[in-house]
Amino acid sequence: MDEEKEEDLLELIKKSMTNFLEQLAAEYYSYLGYFVKTNVKFGLRNSGGWKGEMDVVAYHPESLTLLHIETSMDADSWGHRYNMFKRKFSTAESYYRKIFKFKIKKIEKMAIVGLSVPRQQPDLWKIVPVKYIPHFIQEITDYLSQFSPLTHAIPENFSLLRAIQFAIHFDKGKRLIG
Fold it and tell me: What is the b/e burial string over 60-97, where b = at least 16 CB atoms within 10 angstroms of the residue's CB?
């Protein structure tokens, strides 16, 4: 495989993994009672295209909280991530109330990133709260482990959450086959 095709393949894999994380975040917050929208484009340019895109936006109607989530499963340096997320969040900030016309009391931001937890807190925390992917997965599994799929199955439209629920339930140290 030539170098250009290999780079294209790696980019495609990276994007599909990010889409997984976006979908998981969207399902989880939707299941928690938020209204969720993904891949929200904003800032139409005169020359075409958009100024940016928000990965996941979740609105909680009771608390009137708008939560903007950016996700990444990249292997980039924390310095690169800092610059990328700073740009993404600061660019989106002026569009929240233009796009979402409902009452908002509080706006929260979060980055879900990092396949491992660094020893030192990265500078990214200075601009936005960070939830590391292992902690996010643990939060979801802790929450879902409360519910047996036999008596409280996650609805089928939450396919990732439902798969996690079944995996938790049937992986309680039991060997079911053989």
Answer: beeeeebbbbbbbbeeeebeebbebbeebbeebeebbe
Q: Cα–Cα distances in Å, from 28 out to 47, 68, 136?
A: 36, 14, 10
Q: What's the rounded Cα separation, in Å, for the pair 103 and 101? A: 7
118 three-class SS: coil
Cα separation, 124 vs 127, in Å, equals 6
Ordered domains of the chain (ranges, CATH) = 3-134 (3.40.1350)
DSSP letter for 126, please: G
Q: What are phi and psi of 90, to 5 degrees?
A: -70, -35
* 8: CB partners within 8 A, 6+ apart: none
Two structure tokens written together for 124: 């990214």
pTM of the entire structure? 0.83
Residues 6+ apart with CB under 8 A from 57: 36, 37, 38, 40, 66, 67, 68, 69, 100
Q: What is the pLDDT of residues 90-144, one digit of tens each?
A: 999 999 999 999 999 999 999 998 877 777 766 666 778 889 899 999 999 999 9
Instruction: Collapse the DSSP code of 110 into the 3-class scheme (helix H, G, I; strand E, B; otherwise coil) and give the result.
Output: strand
- Rounded to a whole number of angstroms, the distance between the first and last alpha carbons of the chain is 41
